[in-house]
Design goal:
458 residues, Udp-n-acetylmuramoylalanyl-d-glutamate--2,6- Diaminopimelate Ligase, Chain: A, domain 1, 3 domains, 21% strand, UDP-N-acetylmuramoyl-L-alanine:D-glutamate ligase
């Protein structure tokens, strides 16, 4: 993590007050959460509509923070505390991160995409860890606040940082990539998430391709080659970079040649390599995420033949194709972290193809941020279900009810249950599960369907 004196920090950002009396204090780490203060931290308060972090500055210093920032337009800065007055606390955080990244001798991998960002990040970090000291984005610290905090948490001896870059609108990825200055980037795919803000898949593709603007000269861009929206636009890119593609099509630089579904994952082979690879993650779509990670690892001189050692040890962030067991012996695929039409269909395809269960149940909730066509997307998910592959459907939420409406044409009314009360859904679902049941739980993060998984496990 960042270790700098107050004087050194003042050379990284513009300070508007006299700091001579505490200029030699050493800052070790930066936090924006007063509840997580560690000794030596610099506390950065944010002023929001509902809360003002400046109220906790004194408390944070009592807990061990050596100093705190203070935004210029907030009145009454405490004169008796080590305070650094700045024009804007968020801008100061971002600028410190930018300067710190420039001072570090670290390679950076930036990862974005509509689906699979976090999974690809975890896989990439796992493979690179075979040869390097690696740090990665933790949790969902992938935005204009989280990414700077991740950068400031990098250790001096970190050799490669794998940074996830999220967005909700245009310009956000451009900002993140130019702060991180990646040596390699990945765009996992173009889906329908953020359609509300960007209007079309074309708009989403353009926003994701902003990641190229920060890519270093001579760097590597790894793209999903089966997406025409990406491939058409990347041909117009003028920078001096290398392009590698992955996908199902044999026209890609890397593609799977054979896939065998296992009980807890997949076994697959790739073009040009004799060895087989075992991926302990459910879903054939996750093989594509693995291919992206493998191209990045190979760029950093890790041979494909060594990568199985890293893949078999992959640990994904929770609630992403996580297989758990319920109290009645049922198996539950917890994929409740996020959802879009693309990822929803991939998850349904997975459960449809898994063998060995007497009953298969879908528990699906609202997919958010899909724009004016959101109801149609949900209807199409329901209409695409197959009566011979899925036994029961439970939906949660107003948009989830559209999935139910679409599914009744194929599954019939007796096999479809629509709820807007989560507890009522759980109570009914518990009547239908046993040790021969496989349950998929999936929705956008805001629906909090992990609460259903937890209830089934208790």
């Amino acid at each position: 993590m960042i270790k700098r004196t107050i004087k050194q920090l003042s050379e990284m950002i513009s300070i508007q007050n006299d700091i001579d009396s505490f200029a030699d204090l050493m800052v070790e780490g930066i936090t924006i959460d007063s509840r997580k203060i560690q000794k030596g931290n610099l506390f950065i308060p944010f002023k929001g509509d509902r809360a003002d972090g400046h109220k906790y500055v004194a408390e944070s210093i009592e807990k061990g923070a050596v100093a705190a920032l203070w935004q210029k337009d907030v009145p009454n800065p405490p004169a008796d505390l080590p305070i650094l007055i700045v024009e804007d606390c968020l801008v100061a955080l971002q600028e410190v991160a930018r300067k710190y990244r420039a001072e570090l001798d670290v390679k950076v991998v930036g990862i974005t995409g509509s689906n699979g960002k976090t999974t690809t990040k975890d896989m990439t970090a796992g493979l690179l860890s075979l040869h390097y000291k690696v740090q990665k984005t933790e949790g969902n610290f992938n935005n204009h606040i989280g990414l700077p905090l991740t950068v400031l948490g990098l250790r001096d001896d970190t050799e490669i940082a794998v940074l996830e870059m999220g967005m909700s609108g245009r310009g956000e990825i451009d900002f993140l990539t130019n702060l991180a200055c990646p040596d390699a980037v990945v765009i996992t795919n173009i889906g329908e998430s953020h359609m509300l803000d960007l209007g079309s898949r074309q708009g989403i593709a353009e926003a994701k391709l902003e990641i190229m603007s920060g890519l270093k000269d001579g760097g590597l861009a790894v793209l999903y080659g089966d997406e025409p929206l990406l491939m058409k636009r990347i041909q117009q890119f003028k920078g001096n970079v290398k392009i590698k593609t992955f996908g199902r099509s044999t026209s890609n630089d890397l593609y799977p040649t054979e896939i065998t579904q296992l009980e807890h994952g997949n076994l697959f082979t790739i073009n040009g390599v004799k060895e087989s690879f075992e991926l302990p993650v459910l879903g054939t779509h996750n093989i594509l995420n693995a291919l992206a990670a493998m191209l990045i690892a190979n760029h950093f001189l890790i041979p494909f033949e060594k990568m199985n050692e890293g893949l078999v040890a992959i640990k994904l962030t929770n609630m992403r194709m996580e297989l758990v067991e319920g109290k009645n012996g049922e198996k539950i695929i917890n994929d409740a972290y996020n959802a879009s039409p693309t990822s929803m269909m991939a998850a349904i395809e997975l459960i449809s193809n898994i063998q060995g269960y007497r009953k298969k149940i879908l528990v699906l909730g609202d997919m958010l941020e899909l724009g004016p066509q959101e109801e149609q997307y949900h209807l199409q998910i329901g209409e695409g279900l197959k009566a011979d592959r899925i036994d029961l459907l439970f939906t949660y939420g107003q948009l989830g009810s559209k999935i139910a409406a679409g599914a009744r044409k194929e599954l019939g009314t007796e096999r479809v249950f629509a709820f807007t009360d989560k507890n009522a859904l759980i109570k009914e679902l518990e009547n239908h599960v046993d040790e021969q049941t496989l349950v998929l739980v999936k929705a956008s993060r805001g629906m909090k369907l992990e609460e259903i998984v937890t209830s089934l496990q208790k």
